[in-house]
Amino acid sequence: MANDSLDDLIFIDAPVFVTIALVLDIMANRGPRRALPREPHSTRNIHRSAHMTRILDGGVHHCVEYLRMNKDTFFRLCTLLRERGHLSDTIHVAVEEQVALFLHIVGHHAKNRSMKIDFIRSGATVSRYFNDVLQAICGIRHLFVKQPGTSIHPDIECNPNYYPFFKDCVGFIDGTHIDARVSANLAGKF
Highest taxon of the source (predicted)? Predict the structure, then answer.
């Protein structure tokens, strides 16, 4: 009986031993790993430049479709971020490319992987510039976002149709109050 269990042990361990021996043999004879060939830097730079040209000069609506803003607004935003010192050109990436990358990700819910391909950058580079532009946008938010005041707008306060009901409203859109009427069957929802 003891001899049978020893045979079973040898039978079970033999495949494991052969597998380990094959793996060690393959690793020993393989030599150094060869890296995948990379595209020359000059070619990548030409492709990046062509991509930005397609975005900005590809047609009247192409920039709006890709960046969700027109070309003039895009350049004004880049200039503002550059002049305020929130972003600057780096050796490899201009502010315009950084902002275009950010706007496309935000505007289209694009993934890091697709941005790597579009802008021919590594995932770490895409992530770093996305975060840099996000911080820069947060740095200029005070120029565009006004916090609501605590006072009640005079048009609401002086009008008995609005005052008790709209006194806690943040404010008007562009100073215009839009009178809305809801049918009786939908009034409960509002």
Answer: Eukaryota
Amino acid identity for residue 82 in this structure: R
Type of residue numbered 182: V
Could you give phi then psi for residue 176, rounded to 5 degrees?
Answer: -115, 130
> What 3 state SS string does the chain have?
CHHHHHHHHHHHHHHHHHHHHHHHHHHHHHCCCCCCCCCCHHHHHHHHHHHHHHHHHCCCCHHHHHHCCCHHHHHHHHHHHHHCCCCCCCCCCCHHHHHHHHHHHHHHCCCHHHHHHHHCCCHHHHHHHHHHHHHHHHHCHHHHCCCCCCCCCHHHHCCCCCHHHHCCCCCCECCECCCCCCCCCCHHHC
pLDDT in tens, 47-66: 888 989 998 998 878 899 99
- pTM of the complete model: 0.62
For the stretch 130-151, pLDDT in tens is 999 999 999 998 888 776 667 7
In the numeric block, the tokens 């990358």 are attached to: 101
- 122 with 116: CB under 8 angstroms? yes
* Pairwise CA distance, residues 96 & 62, whole Å: 16
